[in-house]
Amino acid sequence: MSGAPTASERIADHVVSVDPAAAGEETVHAVARAFLDTFAVAVAATGDAVDVALTGYVAGSTGPASLWAGAGSASPEHAALVNGAVGHVLDYDDVTSPLRGHPSIALLPALVAAAEATGADGRRLSAAYAVGFEVMCKLAKACALDHYARGWHSTTTIGLLGATAAVGHLTGLGRDAVRDALGLAVAQAAGTRQNFGTMAKSFQAGACGAAALRSVALAAAGMTAAPEALDGGTGGFLRLYSTPEAAAALDAELATLGQSPGELVTSGIDVKKYPLCYATHRTIDLLLDLRAEHGLTLADVERVEMRANRGGLAPLLHDRPSTGLEAKFSMQFAVAAALLDGEVKLRSFDDEQVRRPEIQRFLPQVTATEDDGPPFPRWAEVTLHLADGSTLHRRTTVLRGSADTPLSDDELLEKVADCFGRGGLGEHTSTFADAVFGWADQPVRSVLARRLP
Questions:
Q1: What is the pTM of this model?
Q2: In this structure, are 83 and 183 located in the same domain?
Q3: What is the spatial distance between Cα 59 and Cα 246, in angstroms, rounded to a whole number?
Q4: Other CB atoms closer than 10 Å to residue 175's CB: what's the count?
């Protein structure tokens, strides 16, 4: 083939150029944190309807890959499907800003399954994660804003492309096979925001990991795809899923692909403090602070006005939720729960908690609107109109748990312990966390074995 390399070829060149043993201690630790968080959130969803449905679906599947919310195993592709969905259903998994979505649930179910199948250690997995994260963020910076606004679930569309690059790196695919695997991933890239608040949203995340493994396996077996699958002018991913200008934007982003310090450092990972859509988190922080400072209860507040930057409320589809899944995408519920309970925890999203009369009565008293200014920097502000006639107002750009204001390891372990407790593994938190943080030179499969009693 002549002419300038396509986007898929440039990404493939990067994937095969990264030394699989080159992940430094900072990268290994960052990926260990990401895995511990993602795995714990899946454990917390043990017994969820999504877990039950998909575990039943793969019953009879055999293979070396662990099912995280239980003691079973399955083929890598089936394990990625189940683990990706179960790890996403609580909407408690990590986020990165460029993606407008969840990087680790796109990357880790496929990567961990592949590592278990190949015997890879934590350092090898960490290098592959960094490769996938880099690719994902470059693609996202080129197209995610418009892509997401059109209704695509960027975690599972752009995320699939990053996961395919990551698994290709872990398994040692050659350059042309990586290029073809990306084209095969484009053939499967799907997921809609219309499914937010339903089980299908988490299924989309599981399908993403399964598709990444499938794409790599088929490319390794010799199946080919169009080199222009990403940036082709007629029917490439960017043109179909975004705007004609996105190809030029990606060309510029790929000029810095792999340059130090890399996207894992510059974009970073945001760990979620609360188990619902990230678009609510700044508001919850503000409300919990005001509640504590002024001794407020829900009865003290007549109504709440909330505003955010343009695009900041796009995922929040449910203003009158009646189920836990719907409540995870409701600013109105987030406000009511924070003011009533003084916390927003996993138990807040049990259906009976969402349907409490005092919660349902307050939902119409919350308005949430977007500003018409620029989408960045992201911010939130709240105005509380109190029963005594006074008002309280506060605004923030800070997001606690974000890459800029990260949780400490101890704070992360508090979240992990809460998740493990809900999943029936509470007494094993420290043992498992120690194994994960020490996984650099240990086979991933042996680390996962430490999760069990």
A1: 0.92
A2: yes
A3: 42
A4: 15
The 10s digit of each residue's pLDDT in 189-242 is 999 999 999 999 999 999 999 999 999 999 999 999 999 999 998 899 999 999
Partners of residue 224 on adjacent β-strands: none
Question: Do 35 and 80 share a structural domain?
Answer: yes
385 part of a folded domain? yes
Whose CA is closest to 152, among 109, 84, 204? 204
Q: Kindly tell me the sign of the dihedral angle through the C-alpha atoms of 400, 402, 405, 409.
A: positive
Kindly report the CATH number assigned to the domain that includes residue 229: 1.10.4100.10
Place of tokens 């598709």: 211
Q: Which residue carries 């919660």 as its tokens?
A: 359
**Per-residue H/E/C for the chain:** CCCCCCHHHHHHHHHHHCCCCCCCHHHHHHHHHHHHHHHHHHHHCCCCHHHHHHHHHCCCCCCCEECCCCCCEECHHHHHHHHHHHCCCCCCCCEECCCCECHHHHHHHHHHHHHHHHCCEHHHHHHHHHHHHHHHHHHHHHHHHHHHHCCECHHHHHHHHHHHHHHHHHHCCCHHHHHHHHHHHHCCCCCEHHHCCCHHHHHHHHHHHHHHHHHHHHHHCCCCCCCCCCCCCCCCHHHHHCCCCHHHHHHHHHCCCCCCCCHHHHCCCECCCCCCCHHHHHHHHHHHHHHHHHCCCHHHEEEEEEEECCCCCCCCCCCCCCCHHHHCCCHHHHHHHHHHHCCCCHHHHCHHHHCCHHHHHHHHHEEEEECCCCCCCCCEEEEEEECCCCEEEEEECCCCCCCCCCCCHHHHHHHHHHHHHHCCCHHHHHHHHHHHHCCCCCEHHHHHHHHCC
- Are 391 and 287 in a shared domain? yes
Same domain, 246 and 309: no
Tell me the per-residue pLDDT of 411-440, one tens digit each, with 9 for 90 and over: 999 999 999 999 998 888 999 999 999 999
CA atoms within 13 A on the CB side of 44: 25
On whether both 151 and 298 belong to a single domain, the answer is no
The single residue listed with the structure tokens 């790599």 is 216
In a domain, 401, yes or no: no
Q: Which domain holds residue 20?
A: 7-273+419-451
CB-CB contact of 370 with 378 (8 Å): no
